[in-house]
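In this supplementary section we document a worked example of the pipeline. Step one takes a protein sequence of length 102 as its only input; no multiple sequence alignment statistics are reported here. Step two produces a three-dimensional model, which step three serialises into C-alpha cells for compact storage. The input and output of this example are shown verbatim.
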Amino acid sequence: MKTIVVLGGGVSGHTSALFLKRFLGKKHRVVVITPNADWNWIPSNIWVGIGAMNKKLESDPTIFSTVGKKIYFFSNQEAKEMFDKDPKSFIEKADKNWKTLK
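The serialised model returned by step three reads:
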C-alpha cells in the first residue's frame, strides 16, 4: 500500500484527492494536508452547475518532490514549496490524520 499526500484542501486539492481515491480504490490511501481544521465544500462550484467537469484531471506532472523512494505530487507550486520546507512534518501529520480517517 502506498500513501499519496495531497497538500491543500481547496478546490484543486480536494478534486485531486477525490479523483486519486476513485482511481486507486482500496489499493492505496490518499491523505489531504491543509492548514484549516474545517473544510467547506460548496456544491455549486461552476463545473457542477454547468456539468463541465469530466474524468480528465488536469495537473502538471513536473510539480513533485521525492522523499526516500516516495514521490509526492502537488496541485500547484505553492503547495510544493510548503512541503519542501519541512517534508518530515507534513508526512507525520498525514500519517497521524490517516488514523482518524479509517
